[in-house]
């Protein structure tokens, strides 16, 4: 039996890689980090042409009917290029929530509009992972009020899918009563906001909210792990390339045993993560009884490995690693922010222990 990617999956990832190679260059990312708001829209339009937002949408609603594994392969590329895209991981979470928590009419409506490019959904379910004293939403009839923190996908979102206690609700970003506050994080390659809502009109999903929120978190954790994996791959490659070019005592520093060990240690820790990531993504669709546990394990493990590689790669670069010329800080901070979104390693390990009956 062959355990690997199919030709179609390799082609999908390659297509996204070639697009981002020209459209998400480091200079473009710098511009976004410095306030250029046009890049995210251009990237979304290009990804839409490639069919990326259609990957997880069923064929019945105009999508491609692929799975979380294909979404993770795309997300890995977005992490490699630190792409300012709402695909990280808002898109996948939104589709998972609609597939699980909406009735047939709502699925046809919202997924069809996403597939047609009319709607771009951001998500806010962080209160389901870690409640905050000043946050939380309440749904009364067809109105929602309260505060949602760390809402993802704000780069290009037209609507937001929000967890409101025991309900999931969709709001129009331009509705009356919506107040946005930009949140400052270490990651300048993405936009995260806080929403304050005052009796905002909403469409409440007519399904079991908790299973839908759980599905969103599981998919989100896998996609964040994929993003960190892609970013860590780049940091490893940059460290190896730099060690071949940088010379001390008339020799490349890569010839020094200490530097060799640092690069080898990074490679040895990162490569086993690939199969873990592929299986965790595969399990979401094909081994549902293992999906929640694998999402916790892949998120916690790659978060730790990514942190190690981010630090070690910067050390290989020496003082140059802290300069904007090298740009390492974009990948470094993206890995750091991914580590905390939807639960850090301690939280995800605790969730894994609860799932296995080792903790309450």
Brief overview:
The protein is of the alpha+beta class and about 350 residues long.
Give an account of the 3D structure.
- The chain is built from 11 helices and 9 strands.
- Helix 8 (257-286) runs antiparallel to helix 9.
- The chain has 3 domains: 7-114, Acyl-CoA dehydrogenase/oxidase, N-terminal domain (Butyryl-Coa Dehydrogenase, subunit A, domain 1), CATH 1.10.540.10; 120-208, Butyryl-CoA Dehydrogenase, subunit A, domain 2 (Beta Barrel), CATH 2.40.110.10; 211-355, Up-down Bundle (Butyryl-CoA Dehydrogenase, subunit A, domain 3).
- The chain starts with 6 loop residues before the first helix and ends in a 5-residue tail after the last helix.
- It has 360 residues and is α+β, with helices and mostly antiparallel strands.
- It is 54% helix and 14% strand.
- The radius of gyration is 20 Å and the shape is globular.
- 48% of the residues are buried.
């Amino acid at each position: 039996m062959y355990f690997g990617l199919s030709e179609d999956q390799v082609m999908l990832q390659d297509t996204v890689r070639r697009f981002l190679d020209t459209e998400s260059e480091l200079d473009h990312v710098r511009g976004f980090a410095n306030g250029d708001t046009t890049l995210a829209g251009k990237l979304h339009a290009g990804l839409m042409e490639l069919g990326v937002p259609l990957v997880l949408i069923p064929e019945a609603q105009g999508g491609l009917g692929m799975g979380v594994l294909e979404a993770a392969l795309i997300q890995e590329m977005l992490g490699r290029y630190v792409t300012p895209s709402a695909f990280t991981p808002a898109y996948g979470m939104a589709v998972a929530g609609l597939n699980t928590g909406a009735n047939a009419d709502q699925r046809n409506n919202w997924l069809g509009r996403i597939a047609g490019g009319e709607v771009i959904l951001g998500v806010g379910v962080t209160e389901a992972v870690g409640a905050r004293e000043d946050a939380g939403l309440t749904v009364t009839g067809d109105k929602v009020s309260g505060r949602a923190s760390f809402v993802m996908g704000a780069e290009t979102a037209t609507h937001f899918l929000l967890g409101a206690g025991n309900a999931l609700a969709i709001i129009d970003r331009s509705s009356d009563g919506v107040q946005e506050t930009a949140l400052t994080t270490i990651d300048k390659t993405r936009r995260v906001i806080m929403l304050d809502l005052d009796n905002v009109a909403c469409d409440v999903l007519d399904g079991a909210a908790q299973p839908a929120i759980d599905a969103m978190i599981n998919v989100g954790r896998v996609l964040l792990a994929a993003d960190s994996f892609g970013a860590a791959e780049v940091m490893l490659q940059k460290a190896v390339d730099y060690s071949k070019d940088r010379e001390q005592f008339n020799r490349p520093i890569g010839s020094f045993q200490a530097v060799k060990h640092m690069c080898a240690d990074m490679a040895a820790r990162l490569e086993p993560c690939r199969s873990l990531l592929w299986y965790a993504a595969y399990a979401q669709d094909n081994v549902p009884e293992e999906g929640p546990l694998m999402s916790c394990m892949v998120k916690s493990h790659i978060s730790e490995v990514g942190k190690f590689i981010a630090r070690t790669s910067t050390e290989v670069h020496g003082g140059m690693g802290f300069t904007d010329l090298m740009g390492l800080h974009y990948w470094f901070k993206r890995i750091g922010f991914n580590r905390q979104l939807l639960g850090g390693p301690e939280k995800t390990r605790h969730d894994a222990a609860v799932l296995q009956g080792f903790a309450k």
